[in-house]
């Protein structure tokens, strides 16, 4: 049976397993990824089946994890490293930005850096500080990196396969609060391109663009709006670098209204980039300014306040109403 | 090497050793030395090298040519041909000694001052100058000489070396990896993390710290309260301090550490105790922070002079050798000068090249916009 209903975490697990079976050069590295199977169990059972040499429990040193992964990639391996939580990537940020992102260019293309960095990201799980952030813009801003985030199990499975096969460094953001959401995965399917956006809900009055954890909220918003007779199109971006602007543009030129939704702070966020570019591309098609819904310019709040901080159904619908009111 | 030379050399050296050990033993037991600043061969209980006169002349030649190359690059910077230069003046023995200890299949992760190691690896010296001239940020294929790109961020490469060495071990290969860094880099977390990872995974890597006493204007005392080589003990692998101005000792100690790595016994930290005779880079003014007397004291320990004295005293090199080497140096200087001046500016489209291996839509879009903008100039300047 090639079609199964899987939670996202399990889909990534199956994808890692398949990649390791297909290519002996694929390695898993990170804190607690071995015996424990990762704190979210994404790597569950892999060390048991592939051994400590391929599923490597590392010292608690993020720069060391990424830095040694770079060295392993230079030796011909394809490391998939896990950063345990979003807020813990910063000790490795130097290695990612100054080394991993640039080495291919510095060698005039003579060497490849096929490193995948998995980061469970985003809020909504009632965690403590540094466990709920959305730093994707910080990576998308860096030339040399690619940044993706699946929103469902099928994408989680296939985008991981594609990320591992890519010769470029890829930051793979996993929407941790959706880890247990189930959807169908066809492991025999032919996946579309890794960086292509996908229309989740078709509509004609307004386009909602989201990725990762916010796709589900936007689909719910579209359903709620439909009850009020509004036809909302929902686009799952899937990739934050590069961004499939052609898809966003095509949708906006059909609906003439755009709202971008993400958990990350709005200020300097992905929404700012999308708003600017779509304004440039589709200025005469827009009936309203591009609106953004996202986090505030504040540190991610304590868990008891995160529902206030995270864009929910009401905030998305409020933006939809404001856009439609122009 | 001929049979005669070996036969002639052995008794002479052993008599020399007897003589030296009677008068001048190893001054500091913590500092491995095989050749004193006065050019006298001394013994060390744990380390030795057995070199033919030809090999000794080879090391001398390497150091002289490396120094000449370095001097030419410094001059080229002063003449405006290079934007910056990081001189290795004074560190020739550390680099040639360790560099000549390497096998072809070993892999080197340098910082930005390892011109002598690059020389030993057979890297075209012109390649080293591209980044300092501003035509690229590295520009060579690391795999063609097993010599990675220069790394400017301090200490980052020690982790790359460790990861690479972990890969070597996984492959079951018996080659080794060497990571170069300085005393300033020893303060960086990445160096500490590379010590941890290499120890935990028993990686075949040698950490070669050139303690040249100064990290721009900051002395070693601002980096550490214990001698650097002693740090290794806390990570569970050996640390050795070697006279970094003694090419023989550097060769012996590095060779031993590489063999240890090959045997699967894990990492070693070597602290080559040396001195940066010049500035940190050509942007720096060392007269503002260090005394002339200090430099003068270190000049007396010059790595090239001491080997020259030894070669002359032992009759291992004659006047013709030194004259011919002088000529070779001048030729090298001229070639470097010409090569730098002939180095073309990169094509402007190079801005968009090699950012990604598999392409990127935004880069494609911006490349096209840039090309169209350049093409818009009527005089064709943009082509």
TrEMBL record, chain A:
SUPFAM superfamilies: Thiamin diphosphate-binding fold (THDP-binding), TK C-terminal domain-like. Residues 6-181 form the Transketolase-like pyrimidine-binding domain. GO terms for molecular function: magnesium ion binding; oxidoreductase activity. Keywords: Oxidoreductase, Thiamine pyrophosphate. Pfam families: Transket_pyr (PF02779), Transketolase_C (PF02780). Its cofactor is thiamine diphosphate. This is Alpha-ketoacid dehydrogenase subunit beta. InterPro entries: THDP-binding (IPR029061), Transketo_C/PFOR_II (IPR009014), Transketolase-like_Pyr-bd (IPR005475), Transketolase_C (IPR033248). It comes from the Bacteria.
From TrEMBL, chain B:
Signal peptide: none annotated. Residues 61-342 form the Dehydrogenase E1 component domain. Pfam families: E1_dh. Its cofactor is thiamine diphosphate. Keywords: Oxidoreductase, Pyruvate, Thiamine pyrophosphate. InterPro entries: Alpha-ketoacid_DH_E1_comp, DH_E1, PdhA/BkdA, THDP-binding. GO terms for biological process: branched-chain amino acid catabolic process. This is Pyruvate dehydrogenase (Acetyl-transferring) E1 component subunit alpha. The lineage of its organism: Bacteria, Bacillati, Actinomycetota, Actinomycetes, Kitasatosporales. The gene is pdhA.
């Amino acid at each position: 049976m090639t079609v199964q209903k899987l939670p996202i975490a399990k889909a990534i697990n199956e994808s890692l397993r398949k990649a390791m079976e297909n290519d002996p050069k694929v390695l898993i590295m990170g804190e607690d990824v071995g015996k424990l199977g990762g704190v979210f169990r994404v790597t569950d059972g892999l060390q048991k089946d592939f051994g400590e040499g391929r599923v490597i429990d590392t010292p608690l040193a993020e720069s060391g994890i990424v830095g040694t992964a770079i060295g392993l990639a230079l030796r011909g391996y394809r490391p998939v490293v896990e950063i345990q939580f979003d807020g813990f990537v910063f000790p490795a940020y130097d290695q990612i930005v100054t080394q991993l992102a640039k080495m291919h260019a510095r060698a005039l293309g003579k060497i490849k850096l096929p490193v995948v960095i998995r980061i469970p990201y985003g809020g909504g799980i009632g965690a403590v500080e540094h466990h709920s952030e959305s730093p994707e813009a910080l990576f998308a801003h860096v030339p040399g990196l690619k940044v993706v985030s699946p929103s469902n199990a099928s994408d989680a499975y296939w985008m991981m396969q594609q990320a591992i096969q890519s010769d470029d460094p890829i930051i793979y953001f996993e929407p941790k609060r959706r880890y247990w959401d189930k959807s169908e995965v066809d492991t025999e399917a032919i996946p579309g391109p890794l960086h292509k956006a996908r229309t989740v809900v078709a509509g004609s009055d307004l386009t909602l663009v989201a990725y990762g954890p916010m796709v589900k909220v936007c689909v719910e918003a579209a359903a709620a709006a439909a009850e009020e007779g509004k036809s909302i199109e929902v686009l799952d971006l899937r990739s934050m670098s590069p961004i499939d602007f052609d898809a966003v543009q095509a949708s906006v030129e059909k609906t003439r209204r755009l709202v971008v939704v993400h958990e990350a702070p709005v200020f300097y966020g992905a929404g700012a980039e999308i708003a600017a570019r779509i304004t440039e591309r589709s200025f005469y098609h827009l009936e309203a300014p591009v609106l953004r819904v996202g986090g505030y310019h504040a540190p991610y709040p304590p868990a008891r306040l995160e529902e206030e901080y995270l864009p929910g159904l009401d905030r998305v619908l409020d933006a939809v109403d404001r856009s439609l009111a122009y | 090497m001929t049979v005669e030379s070996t036969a002639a050399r052995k008794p002479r050296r052993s008599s020399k050793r007897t003589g030296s050990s009677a008068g001048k033993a190893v001054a500091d037991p913590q500092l491995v030395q095989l050749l004193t600043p006065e050019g006298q061969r001394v013994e060390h209980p744990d380390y030795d090298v057995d070199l033919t006169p030809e090999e000794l002349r080879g090391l001398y030649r390497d150091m002289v040519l490396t120094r000449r190359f370095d001097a030419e690059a410094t001059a080229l910077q002063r003449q405006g041909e290079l934007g910056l230069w990081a001189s290795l003046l004074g560190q020739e023995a550390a680099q040639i000694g360790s560099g000549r200890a390497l096998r072809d299949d070993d892999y080197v992760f340098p910082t930005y001052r390892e011109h002598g190691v690059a020389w030993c690896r057979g890297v075209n010296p012109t390649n080293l100058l591209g980044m300092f001239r501003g035509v690229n940020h590295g520009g060579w294929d690391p795999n063609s000489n097993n010599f990675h790109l220069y790394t400017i961020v301090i200490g980052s490469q020690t982790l790359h070396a460790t990861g690479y060495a972990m890969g070597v071990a996984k492959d079951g290969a018996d080659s080794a990896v060497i990571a170069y860094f300085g005393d300033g880099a020893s303060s960086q977390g990445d160096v500490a993390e590379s010590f941890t990872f290499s120890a935990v995974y028993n990686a075949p890597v040698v950490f070669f710290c050139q303690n040249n006493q100064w990290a721009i204007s900051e002395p070693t005392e601002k980096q550490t309260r214990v001698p650097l080589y002693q740090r290794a003990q806390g990570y569970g692998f050996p640390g050795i301090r070697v006279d970094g101005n003694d090419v023989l000792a550097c060769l012996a100690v590095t060779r031993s550490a590489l063999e240890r790595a090959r045997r699967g016994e894990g990492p070693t930290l070597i602290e080559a105790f040396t001195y940066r005779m010049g500035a940190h880079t050509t942007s720096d003014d060392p007269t503002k922070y260090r005394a002339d007397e200090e430099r003068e004291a270190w000049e007396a320990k010059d790595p090239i002079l001491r080997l020259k004295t030894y070669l002359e005293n032992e009759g291992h090199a004659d006047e013709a050798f030194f004259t011919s080497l002088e000529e070779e140096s001048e030729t090298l200087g001229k070639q470097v000068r010409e090569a730098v001046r002939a180095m073309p500016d990169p094509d402007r489209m190079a801005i968009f090249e090699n950012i990604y291996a598999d392409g990127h839509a935004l880069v494609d879009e911006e490349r096209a916009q840039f090309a169209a903008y350049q093409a818009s100039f009527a005089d064709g300047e943009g082509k």
